[in-house]
Amino acid sequence: MKSPVRRALICLLATLPAVASAGPVEVASASASSSYPPDGSVTYDPKNVADGKAGTAWVEGATGAGMGESVTLDFGGERDVAMVRIWGGMWYSADSWSRSNRPKQIELVFADDSKHMVDLDDKQSITEVKLPSPKKTSSLTLRLKGAYNGSTFPDTAISEVQVFDTSAGGPTVRSATASSTAPPDGDSYEPMMASDGLVDTMWCEGNKASDGTGEWLELTLSGSSTVSKLHLLNGIGSSMTMWFKGNRATKATLAFDDGSTETVAVKNTFKTQEIAFAPRKTGKVKITFDEVSKGKEYNDLCISEAYLSQ
Q1: For residue 20, what pLDDT band results from cuts at 50, 70 and 90?
Q2: What is the rounded CA–CA span in Å between residue 236 and residue 270?
């Protein structure tokens, strides 16, 4: 099931720490001081840092390493920003990452022009920045202040940025397990990839005798929390073309710590959906997929994102 994400990227994402399951702050728009020109159908626009995909990137277009160049995320209103996660460099593949420049130091600039300096290691790993205290701001600018040199290309890239506010702290997915997992085929489909905050990675079941009906995904939270909503990106979320190829759920049963269950309808749609249920205090939720809609090519059920909120 070849998705646009390469083997090296997937292996790295499999080791990600747990993320706030309420999801990152929604970005209304993104702009940049400069951008590298398109290469055929591949673009390096600022919007790429906020598209939920590690396999796309913003690349500055200035002369040299682009020091002082910046990308700005506008939230469409004030947020209490508490944490920022940065995928520095070109994450499409390990080769792309090593060949292009990646940030060594980034200055975070808030709407009131206050600043916070961030140092990044020279390795393909996510930089997680927890601010000393939440910062009320309507935008966040990432300004390049230092760079590690790539072996081929002198332009500096940032693949993805996630911003979390204080209200996005919700229940955290600590780990995930599943009834089965599709074997790697150059990509990997481990359960935790359904809760990594990226739409171009996913859990896919691996039961060859099934279309995914009866398979399950269980999310274990960092502690007992009250939850009332399941946020689900159903199917292969990397592109509409890939989404049509794989199986998607149309009905599921949620099981909670107290032994209660609730059956919910799942929309067969290429967008993240919010599924409400009666509030429960629980440390984990097991999602059993009762009904499945067949894809055009792959007979595997895939879930790109699954997280919980109050």
Answers
A1: very low
A2: 8
